[in-house]
Amino acid sequence: MHMQVVTIFPDMVNTVVEYGVVGRAVERGILTLQYQDPRRYTTDVHRTVDDRPYGGGPGMVMKYEPAAAAIRAARASMPPGSPVVCLSPQGAVFDQAVAKRYAELPGIIFLSGRYEGIDERLIESEVDEELSLGDFVLSGGEIAAMAVIDAVVRLLPGVLGDESSAAQDSFMSGLLDCPHFTRPEEVEGKRVPDILLSGDHAKIERWRCRQALGRSYLRRPDLVRKLNLNVEQKQLLDEFLRENDLE
Ligand code: 9D3
Fold it and tell me: What's the total number of domains in the chain?
């Protein structure tokens, strides 16, 4: 897959390749990640990429021409069918379904804005989709682009091992994870649940499912509603609620 990021801070975004999964994908040739800096496409001595908003008000607005030139340069070296996705608080909220859709594309161009906003005419003429990470305020689109890149690259064939790719289609997908424990068996008076030490793998699997369903129900009821539990899952959730005196 080919990715490009249009940003005035390419070095910031490129730190995603210094760690873990994304770096390995680039090393293995599964991913190419390139940058276009709007500043490179300025023509004035000050290399201006922002200006004051028409109509007044605080902050600055990302200018049309340098960003448009950078997007067009990105497009020129990308496979056809590679959309331009602008990271923006006005976008649709990113989730795993969007990550899966992007992972099927031949390429994708991310536009990360800085300042108070981007000239709306640029969004109308050059941007295919606007995408948000959720309802909180970042200082720009770069960290959002990095998060989306990480989530998409994990889904590319050959990036993760077989074990974890299988887990993505498992019985418990779409739910929060169960609790995890590692050695020692007891630390500061706190013991690992006995069942995890029992060696009974069928029982352990049921316990994990029960925990995942219970925690999802308590912390993220929206996830549980979206999932439409099957009979077995409903029974496990009932067991969890009874065990914890929540029914
Ligand atoms: C309400 C006035 N501004 C806040 C001081 C609006 C605003 C402008 C620009 C808020 C954030 C930003 C920069 N944010 C992004 O570029 C961004 C973002 C985000 O802030 N939250 C969640 N997802 C994203 S994706 C890109």
Answer: 2
